[in-house]
Design goal:
The chain is mostly helical and 235 residues long. Helices cover 70% and strands 2% of the residues. Strands 1-2 form a two-stranded antiparallel ribbon.
Length: 235
Amino acid sequence: MVYVRTRLFCCCLPVRFGVFVLSILGLAGGGIVSVYGWIQVAKLKQYPLAFSDEVALYIQAILFTVLTLVSLFGLIGASIKNIGMVSSFATFLAIHLCFSIGIGIYSLVVLFKQNTDDAIRECINSTVDQTTSLATATQTCKDALNIVKGVTVAVYVITWLVQLYAYFIVDRYAKQLEDEFAAQDTERMVAQISRPIPAAVTTYATPRPNNGYSFNEPRHSYGGQYRAGGPSTAV
């Protein structure tokens, strides 16, 4: 039997277990986000948004709906070791990562390009009181705004790294399944080649030993009496 090494992640966990966990998380998280997204889409008639925000909302709802379905494929594929389902799960994780990076970059650009003075002014109006000076409130709002920007960048980067690592886990399990199926095919081919060749069977009858029938003896064959000295004649 051909042995295929089990690929690992996090140093000690098998990648198949990782696919199970990622599939369950995709089903739960994708299902929740997609349901919330479609609820917000249904409310657009009552609470309309800007065109760009509506497009982003539709993309988010569709993307997480597909993530939920593909996560189901990944869970089934890992259960029955179906390489097609697992590969589809890995491919969609890569596509989802690309969309996530694109949306995240757009959000960060909007965050850093917004008018900082307006944001600080709104913050000051909501926080300043009789006990707080204007200078203190201004510095506090600037620090808070910088913290929000830094945390936003960190969250996006960590999210992208986690999604990238998740893709590598699923992709490694798909390659492991390829190796297992290739090993099984090789084992079957070797078994067929090493199978013993059956002995050849002739179509003519082999001589049988004398079974006691007297006329099988050579002296009873045609001409046998002449070879034995000729026929005896009675006088």
